[in-house]
Design brief:
The chain is mainly alpha-helical. The chain contains 14 helices and 4 strands. The longest helix has 32 residues.
Amino acid sequence: MRRIAVWYILLNKRLFKKWSFLLILCIVPLLVAGMRLASQQESGIATIALCMRNPADELSAGIVEQLQADRDVLRYVVCETEEAARGLVESFEADAAWIFPEDLTGSIQAAALRKRVKPVVTVVEREDNVPLTFSREILCSALYPAFSYAVYEDFVRDDLGLEVDAEELLQAYERTLVEGSLFQIEYFDGQVVEDSNYLLAPLRGILALWLVLCGFAASMYYIQDEQRGTFSWMPVRHRLWMAFGFHAVLLSDAVVVLLIACRLAGIFTIWYKEAANAVLFMGCALVFCNLVRLICGTLERLGSCIPILLMGMAVVCPVFINVDRFKLLQYLLPPFYYLRATHSTYHIYLMAAYICAVSALCVLVSGCKNVIKINTK
């Protein structure tokens, strides 16, 4: 154990003298700080220009105030005139403009009397896309309470023919309202999904890709040392385990940075689950990067494969979006297990199985390459 500790310290000291290794480590705090700063700024997937033709209309003013209070997804800009709102859309400063009529209450009541939904707010857009489709759902949800009550009032007074005081009718309607959210999102492990900033959502996946990049950096450092003859004193049959140890030293530093980054970013769950998940992910990245190193063989081939593999992981693994069409490819890539295991104990066991399976492949490929070298000599 003392000998292993000495080797660990010496290899670590050697790594920290490499400027490229220090640069890779510095990427994470800069990334986390930048995304945290961006999440605190006013932002949104789309910018909406709001305009009230009649600022004195209480319903329009209330809905505009409600929309402005909820800025988690959309960014709102209030315009005094309709021309100004349309101008923001035309000049690409806003993605859409929502123009409220002079009498929004009257427009909603008129739609309710006809027993069908009539357009009550003018929406101006340059083009239709997914964020704007989603934004219109937010607008509908803001208008729905007023429309719902108008339909309810019309049904009670006209269809049922009841003469009810307006205050009593409102109290009866409010007794049927559901407080809070109708739905609660929960992971398999029982953790409830809280409201979070959408900019921080892909941060764990980006950190996972970064740790795999650290593994590839270790592979490149190892190939360079092998070419220099640094490990020529070690028997060929033991060099694979030396490579595993070399990668483990670098990745252990990266795992510590990864855990600290998750904590600072506010995406940390339970410490023992995070630690176990990170250590197993380190093992997955270690064996995966070594397998790629053994298959590539040279520094040039490995360097050309790294961007392709990282881009493939960003697309196939649930870093930004979850793509179910690549199930087989997902199970071949380490970030998939790490991202799934955050809230799934089942994938933690799969990570252990992955380490064993890919380690066996590394032993097989390394053995075949050693036999070929011996026969060639």
